[in-house]
Write a structure and sequence with these properties.
By secondary structure, the protein is of the alpha/beta class. It contains 12 helices and 15 strands. The strands form 3 sheets. Strands 1, 2, 3, 4, 5 and 11 form a 6-stranded mixed β-sheet that branches. The protein has a 5-stranded mixed β-sheet with strand order 8-7-9-6-10. A hairpin with a 3-residue loop joins strand 3 and strand 4.
């Protein structure tokens, strides 16, 4: 247990090293490294000898520098490690380094200032509908959509290795998961207790080790926190999924097969119809249209539109410019490979 916790803390230490690379002019900072080593040596207590601590942290610093030199790509996601957003990030690119963020704004701002190469955010799901924060950030921010991921919502019941599944009396998870798994819990007389994040619930179980307890979360959380998955694919809604958008400061539109835009029209009858007709007249398929109230103009709406096609197609490029010229507000959000 303690050894596993040490490994997780070391992993967190390496994540912070990768995040701070942007603020350093050079990977090597001898003065700062000596300062850290001296601090560790002075504060070595108990059974551990100062020389052991010095050598240990010298290796930690060396490993941090090695990772900083590798040019790894960082992707921010909302939630703790083991959350569905991290599963989606790894589905997009297995080689990406996933960095946990506490709030959606942290994801967007970290990508915007160049701290992360990418950010991934849930935009809609078959269970909870649209995620409003994402639309707001896309409208007001400068990031581009560079990809999308559709992740099936598959929940796993996981426990500590020493827990007998027959003794489970409490299961922790997000309210949405508990609702979907209510039938499973009721049949087994298990009390569902809400937790703010499924990955965080798995981390709590690993650290605090409450008796007769389980967590309902993605299977990846069991692997990450050394838990045992005692039952998979629990819950109703077997075909449910969440759609995620991958965001970056710049995108490569050459490989795109899907486009997203947001615009607002004059407040008059037929204004929206005229815009949509531009797409219909040239046979472009719309995959999503959603209206969102404006936060700055009472009674006004912004319309989010997804459609099949690439900006390399002259028809698509022409309709984008036509809509841009006939709307009050228009923003091209990106051309990216469809999920």
């Amino acid at each position: 247990m303690i050894d596993f916790e040490i490994l997780k803390l070391l992993n967190s230490r390496m994540e912070f090293a990768l995040r701070t690379k942007r603020f350093k002019t050079s990977v090597t900072d001898t003065a700062r490294e000596n300062e850290v080593i001296d601090y560790i040596r002075k504060h070595s207590q108990g059974l551990i000898q100062p020389e052991f601590c010095k050598n240990l942290f010298a290796n930690v610093i060396a490993e941090s520098k090695r990772l900083q030199l590798e040019g790894l790509k960082l992707m921010g996601f909302q939630g703790e490690h083991g959350a569905f957003a991290e599963v989606a990030a790894r589905q997009f690119d297995p080689a990406v380094i996933c960095i946990s963020c506490s709030e959606p704004r942290e994801v967007f701002e970290s990508v915007d200032i160049g701290l992360f190469h990418f950010g991934i955010m849930a935009v809609e799901s078959t269970v909870g509908g649209t995620v409003p924060d994402v639309n707001e950030f896309l409208t007001e921010g400068n990031l581009q959509i560079v990809g999308e991921v559709k992740t099936p919502i598959h929940y796993c019941v996981m426990t500590l290795p020493e827990t007998d599944p027959r003794e489970i009396r409490v299961a922790y998870s997000i309210p949405q998961a508990l609702s979907l798994c209510q039938k499973y819990l009721s049949l087994r007389k298990i009390e569902g207790r809400p937790y703010y994040d499924a990955g965080a619930a798995a981390r709590m179980l690993m650290r605090e080790r409450p008796e007769a307890s389980a967590v309902i979360a993605p299977r990846y959380a069991a692997e990450f926190y050394n838990l045992v998955c005692v039952e998979e694919s629990v819950g109703e809604g077997k075909g449910d999924f969440t759609r995620y958008l991958v965001l970056a400061r710049e995108g490569d539109q050459s490989k795109g097969t899907k486009c997203s835009v947001v615009f607002s029209t004059d407040h008059r009858a037929g204004a929206l119809f005229e815009i949509l007709r531009e797409f219909a007249d040239i046979g472009i398929n719309l995959t999503k249209i959603e209206s969102v109230p404006s936060r700055h103009d009472s009674g006004a709406y912004a319309f989010f539109l997804d459609f099949d096609g690439s900006t390399a197609d002259p028809r698509v490029a022409a309709v984008i410019e036509k809509v841009r010229s006939t709307t009050q507000m228009f923003k091209f959000l990106g051309c990216y490979p469809a999920a």
